[in-house]
């Protein structure tokens, strides 16, 4: 696949944490992502009480919207600051507990129990820890993972999906030789190859 000069680009966990610390989070959408509203029906498909997964969730406002609609939301994010900001900005009380299966990981859970956010690397998760999901809102995860880790990421995502799961994916299209990413360019042909 022609992803230009991005093939070997690596963004470290420290760089992501620094983006949150310095407020360099242009990827965060205060009003939610417009494509979320547009394709929400496709994600939910008339179903209620779903378990929905937000990979690399940041402090996505859509998590609160879905929880308010009666769904159960699980997210994962390396930045504890982002997760704490999410709860603070929505005035949601939460409790914090360690995740015994993952060294150093924490789970921040709303006291209502319908939002559980894991603070760890997404690659530390498994269906044994977080269960399986009826839907995934991948708004900026596939385009954020390092190109060399895409197969690993997609393989994990597939193991987290129920049989009739919906996967809503947002990518960006541009000339990968003109921008080093992230967000990274993931051509449609590669998406088809990765997800099969």
Automatic annotation (TrEMBL):
BP GO terms, sorted: methylation
EC number(s) per entry: 2.1.1.67
Gene: Tpmt
Gene Ontology cellular component list: cytoplasm
UniProt-annotated location(s): Cytoplasm
Record's keyword annotation contains Lipid biosynthesis: no
A Pfam match: TPMT
Chief location category: cytoplasm
Binding site for S-adenosyl-L-methionine: 16-27, 56, 77, 121-122, 139
UniProt keyword list: Cytoplasm, Methyltransferase, S-adenosyl-L-methionine, Transferase
Protein name: thiopurine S-methyltransferase
A GO MF term: thiopurine S-methyltransferase activity
Family recorded in the similarity comment: Belongs to the class I-like SAM-binding methyltransferase superfamily. TPMT family.
Catalytic activity: S-adenosyl-L-methionine + a thiopurine = S-adenosyl-L-homocysteine + a thiopurine S-methylether
């Amino acid at each position: 696949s022609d992803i230009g000069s991005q093939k070997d680009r690596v963004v470290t966990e420290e760089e992501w944490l620094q983006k949150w610390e310095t407020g360099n989070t242009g990827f965060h959408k205060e009003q939610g992502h417009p494509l979320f509203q547009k394709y929400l029906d496709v994600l939910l498909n008339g179903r209620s009480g779903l378990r929905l997964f937000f990979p690399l969730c940041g402090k996505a406002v859509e998590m609160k919207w879905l929880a308010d609609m009666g769904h159960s939301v699980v997210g994962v994010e390396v930045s504890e600051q982002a997760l704490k900001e999410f709860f603070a900005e929505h005035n949601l009380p939460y409790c914090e507990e360690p995740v015994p299966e993952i060294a150093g990981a924490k789970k921040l859970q709303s006291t209502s129990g319908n939002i559980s956010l894991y603070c760890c690397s997404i690659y530390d998760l498994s269906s044994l820890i977080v269960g399986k999901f009826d839907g995934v809102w991948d708004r900026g995860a596939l385009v954020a993972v390092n190109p060399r880790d895409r197969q690993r990421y997609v393989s994990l995502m597939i193991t987290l999906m129920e049989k009739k799961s919906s996967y809503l994916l947002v990518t960006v299209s541009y000339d990968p030789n003109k921008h080093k990413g992230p967000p990274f360019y993931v051509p449609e042909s590669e998406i088809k190859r990765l997800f099969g």
